[in-house]
Automatic annotation (TrEMBL):
CDD domains: AHBA_syn
Enzyme Commission identifier(s): 2.6.1.-
Name of the protein this chain belongs to: DegT/DnrJ/EryC1/StrS family aminotransferase
Keyword set, alphabetical order: Aminotransferase, Pyridoxal phosphate, Transferase
Organism: Lentzea kristufekii
Length: 360
């Protein structure tokens, strides 16, 4: 049986293999493995693509959130608001900065942060909110309480737009991840902080480099979180193709919507008005999700779950007790279908038929 993966990284690599090999050969020749010129070049290219003045490469997406928060002055004793339905890294970064994550629920149709709940949890200790641009579409940042600094978690939304504005420019800063499976993925870990603020950009640059503006000067306590040169080569090669890949994802998402439109037991994803999504994931909701998932796997379909456990139900954040009914209910229904730019109509038809069969 020919399997259909959740993500096909091999197909993507084949499109950039020669360009990456040439770029890596140049890095190996010059041995500029850390802070090579390719890093600055990619940062400039990515900032231009996201339509912001600054993109600062860092070690991974979790570091990107933490360093953005620290650059805003978030630290011990502070609180940061975020949705219960997100990957644990969002809350990890808040905790690592020394602050306390404060959860709110998500809305039932899009599963994005419930902006109406944010005001009810804001206190004098609240220093920022981290809305998550989930599954490839932007959260309604403009509806968040005014005056509250926003750090966008844009790990799943490279190239997405909200009311015509590219993610990364919707708040004070944004954090993104270049984990291999992302729309723009490296061949290892990597991330970046995006911002329109010169001051935030300079602070992140200082923090990522041991708190050092120049060698052996350390005015502040920093970290070692740099995007390495080999990864920058990969990311530049992929960035040149990202807009086409994102459009292919939109086409594939529309095809799924058409294939599954008449399946009563499947709740299809909803795009929020004003959003141009990039469909990092195509997430449906189904009854008896675990049984359906097992049936799909048995049929060679690489479906997944994003995410099976709301943050307050994890061991790490069990102390964040509370009731978040939408996040809790949807966690047992979520099902991510295979989606990548190269997926074919035949593959999607087979996925749809397998899902229908599993639901019978």
């Amino acid at each position: 049986m020919i399997e259909i993966p959740l993500v096909d990284l091999r197909a993507q690599h084949e499109q950039v293999a020669d360009e990456v090999a040439d770029g890596w050969a140049e890095v190996l020749k010059t041995t500029a493995f850390i802070n090579g010129p390719q890093v600055a070049r990619f940062e400039s290219e990515f900032a231009a693509y996201q339509e912001v003045p600054h993109a600062i490469g860092v070690g991974n997406g979790t570091d990107a959130i933490e360093l953005a928060l620290r650059a805003l002055g978030v630290g011990h004793g502070d609180e940061v608001v975020l949705p219960a339905n997100t990957f644990i890294a969002t809350a990890e970064a808040v905790a690592r900065a020394g602050a306390t994550p404060v959860l709110v629920d998500c809305v039932d149709d899009t599963l994005l942060i419930d902006v109406d709940q944010v005001s009810s949890v804001v206190t004098s200790r609240t220093k920022a909110v981290v809305p998550v641009h989930l599954y490839g579409q932007a959260a309604p940042v403009e509806l968040l309480p005014l005056g509250l600094p926003v750090v966008e978690d844009a790990a799943q939304a490279q190239g997405a737009r909200r009311n015509g504005v590219a993610v990364g420019g919707l708040g004070a800063a944004a954090a993104t991840s270049f984990y291999p499976g992302k729309n723009l993925g490296a061949y290892g870990d990597g991330g970046a902080v995006l911002t329109t603020s010169d001051a935030i950009a300079e602070s992140v640059k200082l923090l990522r480099e041991h708190g050092s503006p120049r060698k052996y000067e350390h005015p502040v306590l920093g970290f070692n979180s740099r995007l390495d040169t080999l990864q920058a080569v990969v990311l530049s090669a992929k960035l040149r193709r990202l807009e086409g890949w994102n459009q292919a994802r939109r086409t594939a998402a529309q095809r799924y919507t058409e294939l599954l439109a008449d399946v009563e037991r499947v709740k299809l994803p909803v795009v929020l008005d004003g959003n141009l999504p990039v469909w990092h994931l195509y997430v449906v909701r189904v009854p008896e999700r675990d049984r359906v998932l097992s049936a799909l796997h048995a049929a060679g379909i690489g479906a997944g779950i994003h995410y099976p456990t709301p943050l307050h139900k994890t061991g790490a954040f069990a102390h964040l007790d509370g009731s978040y009914p939408v996040a809790e209910t949807s966690a047992g229904e979520l099902l991510s279908l295979p989606l990548f730019p190269e997926i074919t109509e035949a593959q999607q038809t087979r996925v749809a038929e397998a899902l229908k069969e599993a639901l019978r």
